[in-house]
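Need a sequence for this fold. Nothing fancy.
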């Protein structure tokens, strides 16, 4: 009897883990990855929403003078290359950091 309960609990944990991974993959596919774009060395952050190369690929969530939160289907390397090329920034002037999702999916 105890073995049966243990097997049921183990199967429930496996099902919950599969459901959690599936939900996170769906959110990432639908909304993209979350990044924080940071510029250094006195560079002012350009208006990413008006960049022609980023139209439809980046959604600006919030920004300040030198930091911007974005959602993008691009990976961090591609996003950094576009920013460096379009705004003539060096590798030391722009940083892309993954951001934590808020809400229940952010804890996964």
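Here you go.
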């Amino acid at each position: 009897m105890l073995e049966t309960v243990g097997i049921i609990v183990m199967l429930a944990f496996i099902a919950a883990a599969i459901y959690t991974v599936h939900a996170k993959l769906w959110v990432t596919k639908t909304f993209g990855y979350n990044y924080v774009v940071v510029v250094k060395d006195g560079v002012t952050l350009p208006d990413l929403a008006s960049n022609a190369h980023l139209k439809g690929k980046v959604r600006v969530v919030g920004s300040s003078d030198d930091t911007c939160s974005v959602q993008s289907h691009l990976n961090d390397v591609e996003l950094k290359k576009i920013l460096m090329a379009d705004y003539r920034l060096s590798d030391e002037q722009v940083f892309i950091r993954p951001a934590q999702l808020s809400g229940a999916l952010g804890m996964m």
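For context: The helical segments are 2-31, 76-87.
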